[in-house]
Amino acid sequence: MRGTGPMLHAVPLTVFGMELRMTSTFPDISISTDRLVLRPFDMADVPAYIEMMNDELVIAWTEAPHPYTQVDAERWVRRIAPAQRTTGDGIVLAVTEFLTQRLVGSVRLRNTDWRTLSTEVAYITAPWARGEGYATESVLAVAQWLFRDQGFERIELRTAADNTASQQVAQKLGCISEGVLRNARIARTRTENGTDGGWTDIRTDLIVWGLLPEDLEGVAEQLADAGGYGAYNDWN
Questions:
Q1: Residue 15 in this model has a pLDDT that exceeds 90
Q2: pLDDT for the residue numbered 219
Q3: Boundaries of each N-acetyltransferase domain copy (predicted)?
Q4: Angle between helices 134-148 and 164-172 (to 10 degrees)
Q5: Quick one: which of 209, 114, 204 has its CA closest to 152?
């Protein structure tokens, strides 16, 4: 069990009759489900993380450097990921299998608004782990922790228009499609001569999904009835 670091609670201020909140931070936590452990990244994750980030689907749908190098991974683990939490922007969690401790993927909260208690979630799954429901399981665990333990009121997801796998995760979680941001993201696609390993940038629309606490009611049970998994309530 990881120790829980101090959490800086939001302090309300009144300026010109408007209540403002100072930036807060998420606690340093790990979250456990039946199959997974979500915890901060460490240096032992670097080789598996490099492999995952150089997968073609990850290259296509993320803004990560390509090719993703040892230097990139070490910078992520040592500086970028921890800073997401300490600056108040969000939190980054490595997703690992409970039994094997193998890296399954990652879940990242970002663009956190501590006044409205809302945040955006993004997730990546390693190619070997796709089709197992790990993305849904991990994001559901984080959503339950956010709503029940942290008192958050809204989670937002943004999926590229052609990223159907990511959209299926949003739908399984009970997210509501709220609209389309046209031409709002740069993705990547193989060049015509794909054998040379080349990639080129393309514009894509983003589908915006919203998840509120009431949207999660019954989701875990529905997934369990469909042969999925139950509720997650073990975080520390």
A1: no
A2: 84
A3: 36-192
A4: 50
A5: 114
Distance CA(84)–CA(112), nearest Å, equals: 10
Q: What are phi and psi of 218, to 5 degrees?
A: 80, -5
- Asked if the structure places residue 231 within a domain, the reply is no
CA 119 to chain centroid, in Å, comes to 10
Q: Retrieve residue 63's tokens.
A: 């803004």
Q: At 172, which CATH number?
A: 3.40.630.30
Which residue in 118, 144, 111, 164 sits closest to 38, CA to CA?
144
Higher-confidence residue of 53 and 6: namely 53
Residue 22's pLDDT is 53
Any residues with CB less than 8 A from the CB of 221 and at least 6 apart, and which?
A: 230, 231
User: What's the total number of domains in the chain?
Assistant: 1
> Do residues 48 and 105 touch, judged by C-beta distance below 8 A?
no
d(CA 126, CA 95): 10
Instruction: List C-alpha distances in Å: 73 to 38, 76, 94, 166.
Output: 18, 5, 13, 23
